[in-house]
Design goal:
It is built from 5 helices and 34 strands. The relative contact order is 0.15. The protein has a 7-stranded antiparallel beta sheet, with no helix packed on it. Strands 2, 29, 30, 31, 32 and 33 form a 6-stranded antiparallel beta sheet that branches. The chain is mostly beta strands. It has a single domain, classed as YVTN repeat-like/Quinoprotein amine dehydrogenase (Methylamine Dehydrogenase, Chain H), CATH 2.130.10.10. The structure holds fe (ii) ion.
Length: about 475
């Protein structure tokens, strides 16, 4: 159990209200029935929401160097028969346990180089923070972190089982945090960036149990960062940003990964198209420079064009904003906007690349049944006030074809997390989001109707502890006991 060393009022003094949500390490709780604050739990909601994020951003008074280095903590909410039970557990990684025992940070990470003399730092492995996303499989939950193996957890209790090689991964082999599940076959596609003198993307296709059944490799044009990709009809598409990682500071551990990366717009963004059947490269070409963390979805249109909706930044300053996030008062401007990229995978050129909206938008998702296929709804977090120091305060739905927007902006001082879509047997689904109320120091789970976000939540559930802002989550359906 983490020690609460920060006072929430002291940490948040002179900072935006959302900073209260990260002022203290998350406190484990549950399983505990969740009380309803407003509305009622939809009777047809049967299954579990899982969310991962950096639960702890400081230890013994020392802040992590970057948001991405916080230890992973998982929120699970199990829904059944009109009720909900919640629990929160840290992923018991080897690094977390060693640092908890020492009551100080011991390992390098994304933002932090190794400590100690040169000969001890050389080649030190970063801590697997297990903090980025979750993949729910039939018999286990995976806590994902993009530079190493996933950790397996119990789907019900969130007890950590340990590192999981999915039948094929070698120790430390990267398995990224943005897998894509084919809605027809159930196959799971993912990748890992392997860094070195000749960096490459390792490709994985797993069956529905998570076992890796096929692998491939495609070379990278530089030592860089690739966080996400799309499944787009017959293709997997990677957008490789003009970010260059200097390997020497990493090898000698003079810098963390974050500070060893530089923005090199002269290289442009490289588009790499892969055949999803063979996992072999189809084409690659360069285009304008930009940076993206997240892609909402991809598909091949009737005209043959590959369409990709993503959240685009003009440069890599977003990484600095995310570093400053842990202070509760970021000052480096970085605005992500939803864009639509259309490309010809065979002729190797861009057809168009245009903004979908003027809104600041991040964490774009589509319903799981639309992954890799044409979609008419993109859900995302948005900011109603385009201020650098502010956090998201709304959830939006955008029809990328018509431009129609449905926005839910939460009450002042309330901040949502990435939306998670839950399908219904009939009609439009639900959107689930964890909302932190900075006035009450309270987190809630809010359920919105996916086809009418602006109407506000149909149900608000109280969570017994503050859930620090997280990264990504998923939903796993369970058959209704009545069916
Ligand atoms: Fe991500």
């Amino acid at each position: 159990m983490p020690t609460l060393t920060h006072d929430r009022d002291a940490f948040s003094q002179g900072k935006p209200l959302w900073s209260r949500g990260i002022a203290q390490p998350a406190v484990e709780f549950g399983p505990i029935p969740l009380s309803v604050i407003a509305g009622q739990v939809p009777a047809d909601l049967h299954g579990s929401l899982y969310r991962n994020g950096a639960g702890q951003l400081e230890r013994a008074g020392q802040l992590v160097d970057h948001w991405f280095d916080g230890d992973g903590g998982i929120l699970a909410i199990h829904f059944s028969q009109g009720g909900a039970t919640g629990l929160y557990r840290y992923v018991q990684t080897q690094g977390l346990q060693a640092e908890a025992a020492a009551n100080r940070y011991l390992y390098p990470g994304y933002g932090k180089p190794a400590a100690g003399p040169f000969w001890q730092r050389l080649g030190t492995q970063p801590k697997n923070a297990a903090n980025t996303s979750v993949l729910a499989l039939p018999d286990k939950l995976l806590a994902l972190w993009e530079a190493g193996n996933p950790h397996a957890l119990d789907l019900d209790t969130l007890d950590t089982v340990g590192l999981d090689d999915l039948g094929s991964l070698s120790p430390h082999q990267p398995y990224s945090a943005h897998p894509k599940r084919d809605p027809q076959t159930g196959d799971i596609y993912n990748f890992g960036v392997v860094l070195g003198r000749r960096s490459y993307i390792q490709l994985y296709r797993s069956d529905g149990t998570g076992q890796i059944r096929q692998q491939g490799q495609i070379p990278l044009p530089r030592t860089t960062l690739v966080h996400d990709f799309v499944l787009a009809g017959p293709y997997l598409v990677f957008l490789v940003p003009p970010v260059v990682l200097s390997l020497w500071p990493i090898l000698f551990q003079n810098k963390g990964f974050s500070d060893a990366m530089g923005w090199r717009p002269q290289y442009g963004t490289q588009v790499i198209v892969v055949d999803r059947q063979t996992l072999e490269e189809v084409s690659r070409f360069e285009t304008d420079p930009w940076f993206q963390w997240h892609m909402g979805n991809g598909y091949q249109g009737a005209d043959g064009a590959v369409v990709i909706d993503y959240s685009r930044y003009d440069n890599f300053d977003t990484n600095q904003w995310l570093k400053e996030f842990v202070t509760g008062h970021p000052t480096t401007p970085a605005t992500g906007r939803l864009f639509r990229l259309r490309l010809d995978a065979i002729a190797s050129n861009i057809l168009s690349n245009e903004p979908l909206s003027d809104l600041e938008g991040e964490f774009p998702i589509v319903p799981p049944h639309a992954v890799g296929h044409p979609h008419d709804a993109l859900f995302f977090c948005h900011k109603s006030q385009p201020k650098t120091e502010e956090y998201f305060d709304g959830i939006g739905r955008l029809d990328p074809n018509s431009g129609a927007l449905d926005l839910m902006t939460f009450a002042q001082g309330c901040y949502p997390s990435e939306p998670t879509y839950v399908a219904k047997a009939q009609g439009s689904g639900w959107i689930l989001t964890v909302v932190f109320d900075g006035h009450r120091d309270q987190s809630t789970l809010q359920i919105l109707s996916a086809d009418n976000l602006a109407a506000g939540p149909v149900c608000v559930l109280a969570l017994p502890e503050v859930i620090p802002f997280g990264f990504h989550g998923t939903w796993q359906s369970k058959p209704s006991s009545n069916s």
